[in-house]
Specification:
By secondary structure, the protein is of the alpha/beta class. It has two domains: 187 residues, inorganic pyrophosphatase (n-terminal core) (Alpha-Beta Complex); 97 residues, Roll (Diaminopimelate Epimerase, Chain A, domain 1), CATH 3.10.310. 47% of the residues lie in helices and 16% in strands. It has 15 helices and twelve strands. The strands form three sheets. Strands 2-1-3-4-5 form a five-stranded parallel sheet, sandwiched between helices. Strands 8-9-10-12-11 form a five-stranded mixed sheet. Strand 1, helix 2 and strand 2 form a beta-alpha-beta unit. Helix 2 runs antiparallel to helix 7, helix 6 packs antiparallel against helix 7 and helix 12 packs across helix 13. The two termini are 40 Å apart.
Length: 382
């Protein structure tokens, strides 16, 4: 079977960095796919005797998606170093240039749609790039991270390590709503088979607490785990999902889990309230897209809001949080409409945009919002 383009190259470069004791930095998207991709690769590097010098996740509420200037400046003191971006980077042209200026060698491991060109990173692994002959294009970033870890560890990957990595791979793949077919189906089936017996305290904590001891089936339990892990709770730049899944203390994870459980109830209420607000606004409209934003909406909730609205009204849905000069938004589209291709037709307006066909995001100057909306409507009608 054809190989994923540049995956072997990425494995060789990481092995070289371990051997030469270079600094290795991991930069992951803050969603569950990015978090699990980072944990899998970090554990693989550790098992090879390497050391990850620093890990960074951008705070979406403050920085938006992808590689950010703030993130690079935060990591800057570690230069020169090998910077591996996971589940982000494919649309970060300026930021990749800045990373190189700061003294980083950049590897991008992403699975999002490619825009017109590629950033100038040393190595790019993305199933959507030209010349990638890998037959299955539906892997999540954690799926690629798992395959990279297989290449890195080879026969050093024990059965228990594989099980542990596949639990995380299943979690990230399901959370990112990737198609449950081909390799993903294998990852999910194998990962789920050991979920309830996981050695990872972060997963044990879920199955040992009351809400998970009722009559839910495993799929329902995993959906609930994902919704709790998606709760915004950042400490020292680390999202709650990362802290929970990497904790070695069952007591600590149970405490954090209880805190997240309370927050998830509040989160659900806020999502419902925001959905109501959007519905009130669109009840007076009959446009082919839904395009709504507010400075009072919480950025970490708008993805869930957009998903609900899109499902309910079967229209391309753009929901954004307005900041002082810019807005950061999320997009959901019904099956058959490619959100990235749609935004590409209006690419003169957003500062950045990208993602998957059915789920993506954008950042835009507030002064360009109306022009962007009208351009999208024009192209949807066509």
């Amino acid at each position: 079977m054809a190989e994923i383009k540049n995956l072997k190259k990425a494995a060789q470069r990481i092995k070289k960095a371990i051997k030469n004791e270079e600094k290795i930095l991991l930069y992951g998207d803050a969603d569950l796919d990015g978090v699990t991709a980072v944990i899998v690769l970090a554990d693989a590097i550790k098992n090879l005797g390497g050391k990850v010098t620093a890990i960074y996740f951008p705070d979406r509420e403050l920085e938006g998606y992808g590689i950010t200037e703030k993130g690079l400046n935060y990591l800057g003191e570690n230069a020169p170093a090998l910077l591996v971006a996971l589940d982000c980077g494919i649309g970060n042209f300026k930021e990749t240039e800045l990373a190189k200026k700061l003294g980083f060698e950049v590897i991008i491991i992403d699975h999002h749609q490619i825009l017109d060109a590629l950033p100038k990173a040393e190595i790019i692994v993305d199933l959507n790039q030209k010349g990638d002959k890998y037959p299955f294009k539906g892997l999540a970033a954690v799926g690629i991270s798992f395959k990279l870890s297989e290449l890195l560890l080879k026969d050093k990957m024990t059965d228990s390590m594989r099980k542990n990595f596949l639990e995380l791979t299943a979690l990230g793949t399901i959370a990112d709503m990737m198609p449950r077919e081909s390799e993903n189906r294998i990852f999910i089936e194998e990962g789920m088979s050991s979920f309830e017996r996981s050695w990872r305290p972060g997963l044990q904590a879920f199955f040992e607490t009351e809400p998970f001891k009722d009559e839910l089936n495993l799929n329902q339990k995993i959906s609930r785990i994902i919704s709790i892990l998606n709760v915004r709770d950042v400490e020292n730049n680390f999202p709650a999902s990362f802290r929970l899944l990497t904790s070695s203390s069952l007591q600590q994870t149970k405490e954090l889990f209880t805190k997240l459980l309370e927050k998830s109830v509040q989160r659900k209420e806020k999502i419902e309230k925001t959905v109501e607000e959007v519905e009130q606004r669109i009840s007076k409209q009959s446009e082919p897209i839904i395009f709504e934003g507010d400075s009072n909406w919480e950025f970490t909730l708008i993805s869930a809001v957009a998903s609900i609205i899109c499902k309910r009204y079967q229209k391309p849905t753009f929901v954004f949080k307005k900041l002082e000069k810019e807005s950061i938004g999320t997009v959901r589209t019904p099956a058959g409409i490619d959100s990235v291709s749609l935004m590409k037709k209006c690419s003169q307006y957003p500062i950045t945009y990208g993602g998957h066909p059915l789920a993506s995001g954008f950042r835009i100057k507030n002064e360009d919002l109306e022009k962007f909306k009208q351009c999208l409507i024009l192209h949807i009608k066509q």
